[in-house]
């Protein structure tokens, strides 16, 4: 994938683009992660699908921002569409990225061909205050990894950076807390605002969603399919083969229905 950037409201936002001429799929990561997490999926979907994986504000190689409101994220996504001159795309999002995807669809339905929503509910209420323990710079990579802990470390490997003064994470912990506060809330109105094809993917070991919650989302919204796979909150990372096997036929149907 090729790394590129664009400007939006004074920020430089970075993204990865497989740039293979296929149908456009924009992938949006969870808190703490970055677009690189979807590189294996891009390989699996090539050449039919061009995967564009955004490093959302405050994450990865994108600039940190002053604010992390719902509208901030959605405006950034609109800026990506405009920068790429895309009329529409399939949106795929995990956690933070999933809410951003279905809320963007609610505001710009003409831009969204279909939705793939990975393990996030229509109501969100999470406390990630433990991330303040990761703030600052560590003397060694091992020390930083020990502060993160073994359960979450695999998901944060792409976000570890070496700086002249030591080892740190690409994101700021206080930024993540601000972002989560903006994400928490009742988003049913946005989830039910569209009826484009939607694939809702949950992890059977997720600590963020429940099967009951996801089943209600699939039942109440038309044109929505639910698949629960082995894995936790970041299903595409925990179970890449299962995730790809669920996504591919959904994308094939989306492509054939459009044509």
């Amino acid at each position: 994938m090729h790394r590129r950037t664009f400007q939006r409201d004074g920020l430089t936002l970075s993204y990865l683009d497989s740039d293979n001429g296929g149908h456009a799929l924009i992938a949006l990561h969870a808190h703490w992660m970055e677009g690189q997490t979807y590189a294996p999926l891009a390989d699996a979907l090539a050449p039919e699908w061009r995967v564009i994986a955004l490093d959302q504000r405050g994450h990865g190689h994108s600039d940190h921002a002053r604010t992390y409101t719902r509208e901030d994220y959605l405006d950034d996504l609109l800026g990506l569409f405009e920068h790429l001159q895309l009329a529409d795309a399939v949106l795929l999002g995990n956690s933070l990225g999933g809410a951003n995807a279905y809320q963007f669809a609610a505001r710009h339905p003409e831009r969204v061909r279909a939705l793939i929503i990975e393990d996030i509910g229509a109501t969100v209420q999470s406390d990630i205050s433990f991330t303040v323990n990761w703030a600052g710079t560590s003397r060694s990579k091992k020390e930083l990894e020990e502060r993160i802990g073994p359960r979450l470390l695999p998901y944060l490997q792409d976000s570890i950076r070496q700086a002249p003064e030591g080892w740190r994470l690409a994101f700021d912990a206080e930024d993540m807390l601000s972002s989560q506060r903006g994400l928490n809330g009742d988003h049913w109105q946005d989830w039910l605002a569209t009826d484009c094809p939607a694939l809702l993917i949950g992890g059977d070991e997720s600590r963020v969603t429940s099967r009951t919650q996801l089943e209600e989302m699939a039942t109440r919204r038309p044109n929505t399919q639910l698949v629960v796979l082995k894995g936790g909150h970041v299903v595409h990372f925990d179970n890449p083969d299962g995730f790809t096997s669920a996504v591919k036929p959904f994308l094939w149907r989306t492509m054939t229905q459009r044509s």
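The CA atoms of residues 92 and 116 lie 4 Å apart. The mean pLDDT is 96.
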